[in-house]
Structure formats: structure tokens, C-alpha cells
Write a structure and sequence with these properties.
It is built from six helices and nine strands. The chain is of the alpha+beta class. It has two domains: about 80 residues, SP0830-like domains (Alpha-Beta Plaits, 2-Layer Sandwich), CATH 3.30.70.1280; about 90 residues, Alpha-Beta Plaits, CATH 3.30.70. A five-stranded antiparallel sheet has the order 6-7-8-5-9. It has a four-stranded antiparallel sheet with strand order 2-3-1-4, with helices on both faces. The chain starts with a strand and ends with a helix.
């Protein structure tokens, strides 16, 4: 069995696509996954699955969630090892976060050939570094007044991405991985 983290895009945003974490956990358990846990209502699911083909597993999870929920949910899947490696790399070393400075990691569903197209500094969103599957950014609310800097990333990579605050990734790693 391999431990994975499924980052779901677009659930519990506004009044649409509402699901409790208990319902989400049950959907994963009913699909046959083991050791299922959820972390906060933004759609973070930690679970064990057999097999190591993350692409096939992503399609399987999306299909099973679609059946259980009645609508499609984009799933960005990372192994526990990949998430631990992200945290261990300390991508935000030397950056002080706070009420006005937010640290984000954006997970790409497919290889990000648009990374060079993303401006390094766009309207308060500063890209610290990016790889083929991940973008690390800092959002300065003093420059933007909003947390909507992610539209810059969507323009470069499309809608099949999802973003989490860095403290969520650290907490998932500390609690579950």
C-alpha cells in the first residue's frame, strides 16, 4: 500500500459543491481506500491505495468521486513521499509569512510546460520557484488587497491546478505523513 494525498479542486467554495468531510471520507472508504483521513474542508484527503501508477489512480479517484457526488471533481494526487520532500526542501526559507504575506504551493495536474510563461512578479504574486508539477509563490496582500493572485497561475497552467497555503501542507505532513 502507498500513502497518498488527494488535493481536490473546487469543493466547498461558496454555496456550490458542498460536502462535509465525513461524507468525503465515506466516499473514499466506499471506493475501497484504506486509512482515510481528511484535513479541513478545502478538500485534502489522505489515504492508502494499492498500486503506484498515480495517473491511473487519479482517474480512478475522479471517476469514483463523480459517481458518489454527482459531479466531476479535479483531483491532484501526490504520494506522501512527494509531499514530505516538498516540506523538507524548505522552499520558503527566509520568507516571513504573516497577516499580509501568504505562502502558497500550487499543484499542477500535468507537467507544467508553462512555467517559463508565468511572470515572476505579477500584481503582488511573486513566484519563488517552480518545477514541472509545483509552483511556490508568495502573495503580498498589501499590493493586491485580495487573495485572488491565483488567476495568474490559471492563465499559465489552466484550471486543472489547485493551490494550498503552505501551513496546510506543513500541517498535513506533521499529522498524517
Amino acid at each position: 500500500m502507498t500513502k497518498y494525498v488527494a488535493f481536490l479542486r473546487g469543493i466547498n467554495v461558496g454555496k456550490h459543491r458542498r460536502i462535509t468531510m465525513a461524507e468525503l471520507k465515506r466516499a473514499f472508504e466506499d471506493a475501497g481506500y484504506a486509512n482515510v483521513a481528511t484535513y479541513i474542508a478545502s478538500g485534502n484527503v489522505i489515504f492508502d491505495a494499492s498500486g503506484t501508477d498515480a495517473g491511473a489512480l487519479t482517474q480512478e479517484v475522479e471517476a469514483q468521486l463523480g459517481s458518489a457526488l454527482g459531479y466531476h471533481v479535479d483531483v491532484i494526487l501526490r504520494s506522501a513521499e512527494e509531499v514530505r520532500e516538498l516540506v523538507a526542501a524548505k522552499p520558503f526559507a527566509g520568507v516571513d509569512a504573516g497577516d499580509e504575506i501568504r505562502l502558497y504551493v500550487t499543484f499542477l495536474s500535468r507537467l507544467g510546460n508553462g512555467a517559463s510563461a508565468v511572470p515572476r512578479d505579477a500584481g503582488g504574486l511573486r513566484i519563488l520557484r517552480s518545477s514541472e508539477r509545483t509552483v511556490f509563490s508568495v502573495l503580498d496582500l498589501r499590493d493586491t488587497g485580495t487573495t485572488d493572485g491565483m488567476t495568474v497561475l490559471e492563465k499559465a497552467f489552466g484550471k486543472r491546478i489547485t493551490t494550498r497555503s503552505w501551513n496546510v501542507i506543513e500541517e498535513i505532513t506533521a499529522r498524517y505523513l
